[in-house]
Amino acid sequence: MAVLVIADHDNATLKDNTEKTVTAALKLSSDVDVLVAGKGATAVADAAAKITGVRKVLLAESDELGEGLAESMEALVVPLMSGYDAVLTPATSQGKNFSPRVAAKLDVAQISEIVDIIDANTFVRPIYAGNALETVQSSDAKKVITVRPTVFKAAADGGSAKVETIPAPAKPAKTHFVDQKLVKSARPELSGAKIVVSGGRAMGSAEEFQRVIEPLADKLGAAVGASRAAVDAGYAPNDYQVGQTGKVVAPDLYIAIGISGAIQHLAGMKDSKIIVAINKDADAPIFQVADYGLVADYKAAVPELMAALTAAGK
Amino acid sequence: MKVLVPVKRVIDYNVKARVKPDQTGVDLANVKMSMNPFCEIAVEEAVRLREKGVATEVVAVSIGPAQASETLRTALAMGADRAILVQTTEDLEPLAVAKVLKAIIGRESPDLVIMGKQAIDGDNNATGQMLATLLDWPQATFASALEAAAGKAKVTREVDGGLQTIEIDLPGIVTADLRLNEPRYASLPNIMKAKKKELAIEELASLGVDTAPRLKVVKVTEPAKRAGGIKVETAADLVSKLKTEAGVL
């Protein structure tokens, strides 16, 4: 069988969700191609060609592909599927936007956000906010799959696949791009960071969130996350949200500050290697999943933590 | 403008799902069920359009067991004008749900469909996108702001790293993200009024749609539990444990 992986990138750099999805694809087949759809994305395609195990990289470019319009992505991917038995897409918001369209067009189920591959037809995926794992067997001839990247190790570099340019589809008639406002940050990206520092409702304001969470994150070289409560209250931007409906993270170290630990938040971070919780409520559910809990008001605890990190040479 | 809002009856947002001992699924017997939170947001947005005079009629649709009529009554109490229940005891996959909705839409001809981006039971996040594809209508998923006018909708979408704004020609599909609005609680007078609103019930079989499952559920298991951790007394203790014991600093 042959498998197509859809690259995750921002037109400038390839994101490691791609390498992780290639690892999942290599469990299905040794014939793995990567599709880079974007605009001005030659460097992305070159980076994808270096992933070990990749047979070929397909590069398609247009304004709409660069903007990530779902209709354009579907129109690009569906005709390619005559040459593939499965398409694997990282379960990012971009992937979730177009992958179900490919499935519907091919008249097959989408197997959403898989976390394990049992065999070519059998996959494991979380349901009910990760409170249950469902093993499903697909009877469809072609598999359309989104992959939760955090559970797969990134495939290493070392390959030298060919990059082949393919034509982009026509502009969609009924969808029009207006603009895009992306948050620019020098911090590592949330979904791939080794350390994540997250703040919750206890912060009380956006100013307090920035004053407390961000310096600690910067000291640790960490990404910043937030609970849904903090995002809903406007303390942190929407793309900081960790949880069932936000981002799923699995860093080496997750530090939850002033987060109570609702089921929906735990769904997004409970696969972290080490979890630290700082909360003044000793009964907060976050302590049930924390490896190290500090029952304290963050107002006192975070400055002490900063000082202790400095003392430890951080 | 006519707005159609599909809604799903699911386990209540605050209830922790428990896996059945025989691994056939999640135990929903005697568990509180509610409208999927994202569907509530979709209903709220449609009702707001109605209140602004942009929408002329809001029709709520649910596919599910007889009890899903309670979910539809909630939508009616929030302000939807009438409701349709496509009754079935089958658990439909997103592709099948999209096909059923396409059949209903063929009959109802709405200008706009607003639906939740994801149901909190299956966590697929797929039905809206599939429906848009089957209808060949434009889609605007994960909406955090919606401005609808005759023939067009401008939608701000939550994307990786920020926000994207697109404009779609109507008819089209919008899927609601968390920050689109805060749904209202239905007032007692409105709950009473909702009891008198039209709720049509039809059997799934009468629609003649292929809803055969494509995925066989082999088993449903509980995820591995995290071993309980320890409490530390001070921030300094914490740093030293992270350094020496956990080795993550």
Describe the model:
The complex is a heterodimer of chains A (314) and B (249). Helix content of chain A is 30%, strand content 28%. Chain A is an alpha/beta fold. In chain A, the strands form three sheets. A seven-stranded parallel sheet of chain A has the order 5-9-4-1-2-3-10, with helices on both faces. The radius of gyration of chain A is 21 Å and the shape is globular. With 249 residues, chain B is of the alpha/beta class. Chain B is 28% helix and 31% strand. Chain B has a nine-stranded mixed sheet with strand order 9-8-7-10-6-1-4-5-11, with helices on both faces. Classes of the chains: A alpha/beta (314), B alpha/beta (249). Chains A and B meet through helix 4, helix 5, strand 5, strand 7 and strand 8 of A and helix 3, helix 4, strand 7, strand 8 and strand 9 of B.
Task: Briefly characterize the structure.
The complex is a heterodimer of chains A (about 325) and B (about 250). Chain A is about 30% helix and about 30% strand.
Strand element count of chain B: 13
Mean pLDDT of chain A: 96
Most strands sheet of chain A: 7 strands, parallel
Count of helical regions of chain B? 6
Strand content of chain A: 25-35%
Individual helix count of chain A: 10
Provide the spatial order of strands within the biggest beta sheet of chain B. 9-8-7-10-6-1-4-5-11
Q: Helicity range of the residues of chain A?
A: 25-40%
Percent of residues in beta strands of chain B: 25-35%
Radius of gyration of chain B: 21 Å
- Measured as a percent range, the helix fraction of chain B is 25-40%
**Uncertain runs of chain B:** none
Looking at the structure, what is the overall shape of chain B? globular
Classify the secondary structure makeup of chain B into a structural class.
Answer: alpha/beta
Coarse morphology of chain A: globular
Uncertain segments of chain A are: none
Give the helices and strands of chain B as they follow along the chain.
EEEHEHEHEHEEEEHEEEH
Based on the structure, what is the oligomeric state of the protein chains? heterodimer
Distance between the termini of chain B: 57 Å
Radius of gyration of chain A: 21 Å
